[in-house]
Amino acid sequence: MACCCAQEVVFDVNLIENSALEDGLAGWAPVGSCTALSVHEEEPAKVPTETINDVAEDYRPSGRYILASGRADEADGLRQAIKGALKPRLTYRVSGWISVGAGAAADAECAGGGHAVHVNLRLDDECVVKGGAVWAEPGKWTEIKGAFRLKKSPCAAEVCVQGAPAGVDVKVMDLQVFATDRKARFRKLRRKTDKVRKRDVVLNFGAAASGISGASVRVMQMDSSFPFGACINPGVIQNPSFVDFFTKHFDWAVFENELKWYHTEAQQGQLNYADSDALLDFCDRYGKPVRGHCIFWAVENTVQQWVKNLDNDQLTSAVQSRLQSLLARYAGRFPHYDVNNEMLHGSYYRSRLGDDIDAFMFRETARLDPGATLFVNDYNVEGGNDPNATPEKYIEQIAALQQKGAAVGGIGLQGHVTNPVGEVICDALDKLSAATDLPVWLTELDVCESDVDLRAEDLEVVLREAYAHPAVEGVVFWGFMQGHMWRQDACLVNSDGTVNDAGERFVDLRREWTSHARGHIDSAGHFKFRGYHGTYVVQLATATGKVHKTFSVEKGDTPLVLDMNL
């Protein structure tokens, strides 16, 4: 039964009462067999000072927290009713801070220095909706960066904090739930985009100025320095509607499965590069560079059975043969390689061959194809809801690889997202770029939502965050056409070739991020405009006809002055 109460949506207002515990435990209650809740004050030096919670400009964590102790099960924790009605189709953010204490099981069971703690919503005493998850560590506060969206309004809702093994104390500070204002965020991102992706340009017509002052000028952007791409396979390149949209709106490609080891060598010793060769030929015809995805895949269930059957010496030899075969055949053909896919979520080769094998793969790839940029590539890092894939863990992984001589040249964020939150994506990008100084690509973007109108909004969230961030250098979609995608509720183009609302939003954004200008040469012989980075052609209309010249606008903080010398 849906709740019939109607209220105006108020953005950025916390729906959790007594969040900062000014009234002690008022409103808070235990979950499960956890019977001990108590309020404590953190030492000032240990209270977090950085937060992505920008709802209130002066917000700082309060330092007061609830301790849930005496927990006998992972389901035990604490809860609080949400005031007011939750609205369908709105994105709600879940924020706050989580830590764990030294419970009876902490030392014995704490894997990797922490535990997964989850924030869930219980609706009408029945449905449970995931609201966020963190990797919480003793003596350290970890910020919750969760989100949820409902299809209908519940009559009652409560937020619950649960997880960590029995006997481990859970600490919660400043838990908040609030509707996020995407339009306000977009306004901020437009201003940020103008600074990051555009530059003032002065076209100087110099000595010819006296004869052409006042002449008509038209500037048209031909392509962008920020590429968008899409994955392809042998089937979709036979579909005229797919090819039409791909060639018009995408600059790069990636093969869906055709370069993966399980495809090129399904049976030991029987190499098959026919599909990847055909796809490369297709991309060459249309001038599309291709990302090399992927040389290895760290997740065990993606490894061929014949590879699993090898002993360790044979596996080492097979890894070397794979590198030699692939990279000798395609040296110089792939500008990027995902070397060992999803190492945050799998460790097959490392568990078999030791800690150095991942770095070895990078070192050998760099030796055999020194012109390629080598990427790590993983999922959920940008979402804030996977304790196994935090930006901090990704940074640690990259640093460990580099210490062993791996030439990590780029960071891949796959971008398989649902109900994205812009501030969370931006936070991940900020942390990755600050710690590594490496370029970031979204490598497998698909935004999954059955409601195509909401899908368009979700897609805009991700694309605006990526385009406005200086560390991001490209976005590749993991398909775009209905019936030809891994996640079907993420398509931009319907199976009959019509472009849906999400596809139109993508096209509109690409149009928004393209610069054109018209005007006249001033008395000093200049034509000035502000444009997005990319390649342009200028058309000058004179008494003797029209003159054209191409030029490029690169990144820079100062105005770009270009002598036209027509």
TrEMBL record:
GO terms for molecular function: endo-1,4-beta-xylanase activity. Pfam families: CBM_4_9, Glyco_hydro_10. Residues 216-509 form the GH10 domain. It comes from the Eukaryota. Keywords: Carbohydrate metabolism, Hydrolase, Polysaccharide degradation, Repeat. InterPro entries: CenC_carb-bd, Galactose-bd-like_sf, GH, GH10, GH10_dom. SMART domains: Glyco_10. One of its GO terms (biological process) is polysaccharide catabolic process. Belongs to the glycosyl hydrolase 10 (cellulase F) family. This is GH10 domain-containing protein. It comes from Urochloa decumbens.
